[in-house]
Amino acid sequence: MIRLENAYKLHETYRGLSYTFPMRLYDPKKVAQKIVAEYNGENASELARRYGYSMRWVLEVLRKERERKHKD
Predict the structure, then answer these.
(1) pTM of the full structure
(2) Does the pLDDT at position 22 exceed 90?
(3) Using an 8 Å Cβ cutoff, are 47 and 38 in contact?
(4) Which of 17, 61, 67, 72 has a beta carbon 3.0–4.6 Å from 32's, enabling a disulfide?
């Protein structure tokens, strides 16, 4: 949360403009790498919550990593 004085500064600088913030601040490829590194076999739902992605997306990341390892 921003403090009131910072809100005033933002208003002063950007008043009258429209700005859209991204839904996520992280690069999905970097998040996928972190998920693979932090996955312990049982914490997929925790990782999905932590990084703000769906369970389906997390499981897809893990599936692709398994396939990649299987090819090597």
Answers:
(1) 0.69
(2) no
(3) yes
(4) 61
Per the listing, tokens 């009258």 go with 16
- Are 31 and 51 spatial neighbours (Cβ–Cβ below 8 Å)? yes
pLDDT tens for each residue of 30-61: 999 999 999 999 999 999 999 999 999 999 99
Give kind and range of the element (H or E) at residue 68.
helix 55-71
Please state the domain extents for the chain.
Answer: 24-72
21: which 2 tokens? 């913030």
DSSP H or E run through 11: helix 4-14
Distance, in Å, from the CA atom of 12 to the CA atom of 69, rounded to the nearest integer, reads 52
CATH code reported for the domain at 24-72: 1.10.10
> Are the C-beta atoms of 58 and 44 separated by less than 8 Å?
yes
